[in-house]
Design a protein that fits this description.
Elements (H helix, E strand, L loop, with lengths): L8 H11 L12 H10 L3 H11 L4 H4 L11 H10 L3 H14 L28 H11 L22
Length: about 160
């Protein structure tokens, strides 16, 4: 019989990152990204799905209308949500570092292959975690523009106004 093991900080960070990018209605044990994360961290897809359901307890966008998440969230779940809910850039960097340590190629800093025969030097300022932020906004609004209702994600640009 398999012995139950506690979730590690790294596993919870990866699950929370995924929670922020998948619409709540699509969190199922057979979701491709949930299955991939489960395989990566040695958990079952159902365990990852349940962990993601735990995060709802601490998610104001979910609980604001009286709904509740699962009641068996851990102290670590709450700590991770509180640490990263207002600091997505840091979460993305930490999650990418964890993935790299597990042998997954990082999405941060990847570049297209430069055609053979010449090089170009460019200085580009890139917002770290932009794709995560965009995925999270699209997830929150069910892949629609929150202003116009347009349902073509390829036309939508997520922007953080400060």
């Amino acid at each position: 019989m398999n012995k139950r093991r506690n979730w590690t900080r790294n596993e919870v960070i990866l699950a929370f990152e995924l929670y922020c990018t998948i619409p709540s209605s699509k969190v199922t044990a057979n979701h491709e990204a949930i299955v991939a994360l489960a395989n990566l961290i040695g958990r079952t897809p159902n365990a990852v799905k349940l962990k993601m359901q735990n995060f709802k307890t601490y998610d104001p966008s979910y609980t604001s209308d009286g709904r509740v998440g699962l009641s068996h969230g851990s102290k670590l779940d709450k700590e991770i949500v509180e640490e990263f809910a207002e600091n997505w850039d840091e979460m993305v960097i930490e999650a990418e570092n964890i993935k790299e340590s597990l042998g997954v190629k990082s999405k941060i800093g990847t570049t297209k292959k430069i055609p053979q025969g010449y090089d170009k030097v460019r200085l580009v300022k890139t917002r770290v975690g932009q794709s995560f932020f965009r995925d999270s906004v699209l997830s929150a609004y069910d892949s629609r523009c929150c202003v116009t209702g347009i349902e073509l994600p390829e036309l939508l640009i997520a922007a953080l106004c400060q």
